[in-house]
Amino acid sequence: MGAYILRRLLLVIPTLFGVMLINFALTQFVPGGPIQQIQARFEGEGDSIQNLSGSAGGGVQEEDGGYVGARGLPPEFLARLEVQFGFARIVCAEGFTGTPSLNAPECEKEAIPAAERFLIMMGKYLTLDFGQSYFRSISVVDLVIEKMPVSITLGLWSTLIAYLVSIPLGIRKAVHDGTRFDTWTSGIIIAAYAIPGFLFAIMLMVVFAGGSYFQWFPLRGLTSDNWSDLSLWGKIKDYLWHITLPVTAQLISSFAVLTLLTKNSFLDEIKKQYVMTARAKGLSESRVLYGHVFRNAMLIVIAGFPGVFLSVFFGSSLLIEVIFSLDGLGQLGFKSAVERDYPVIFGTLFAFGLIGLVVGILSDLMYVFVDPRIDFESRG
């Protein structure tokens, strides 16, 4: 097993490199970039460039203090932004002894080729240096940590509740296969699976969050404004009060696949010879189900838990976050893509891609833990 794990770990490096290379290459063909985004903001919002001009070293003000938005951004300012964002570098003449600057006549801007920018970026990522957001003046790591509570809430609670409900329901459906209970529950979960999560979220808000009927739950956020003043029990109740509707909306389509997978796994095992033998020996039905069938039937369901959690955690619905005013990784990813905030896009892609590959290895280890008969080593 050790050799198999080593092989999988060694495959992580080229796989992650390939993922980053493909996505980096695709961005080279996407129209617009962070510089163009700043230009568009400046032309549309005027004085909003004031903070950017200060952070980029220099400004775009006239001598009388007014801004030159009507004429667009000066080439000197755009050049400084290109250097600041890593698209270009300052190259000075041989023998230059001062501080490299675009203001120096011996220095000029030189564009950095895309291949070189990619290698520079990957070199920084290998040291876990993910850089700073272009538009938020905060490091990528701090930005992700800031948005993490929302994704943890939606991902963790949705996954746990889905497993706690779907596994017992799937077992009961397998035991009562073909009965009215099986038919009605299948219809309900399939209908729930067909309902878009964002539409269900809107319905929950209209009915239970002060729309046209009841005002039982808050409209936005994970906590109340007086969170810091609450007792420990008060904070727990306030947190659960806020997450009820968004987690419910996230859950609506999560039961069908897991429930039917559990049911079909149990049906396959129930028909096998060892189950008939256990019943012939006089074992009770519960002993047969949970002492013999459960371990084999739950192999796929339990072993897939890391992957399911990861998909829910990092795939949290953007629309649900928007509807309930939750500022999580979904909105962060969307805004970063729209703004062409490359450090956030590629930093999170590298980190989450690495986590995803490691979780894939953990899923294989879960298979071995649940059923020691599985030997990945022999497949080599």
Automatic annotation (TrEMBL):
The chain crosses the membrane at residues 154-171, 183-209, 239-262, 297-324, 344-370. Residues 148-367 form the ABC transmembrane type-1 domain. PROSITE patterns: ABC_TM1. Keywords: Cell membrane, Membrane, Transmembrane, Transmembrane helix, Transport. It holds the Pfam family BPD_transp_1. It is a multi-pass membrane protein. InterPro entries: MetI-like, MetI-like_sf. Its main location: membrane. It comes from the Bacteria. It is found in: Cell membrane. Belongs to the binding-protein-dependent transport system permease family. This is ABC transporter permease subunit.
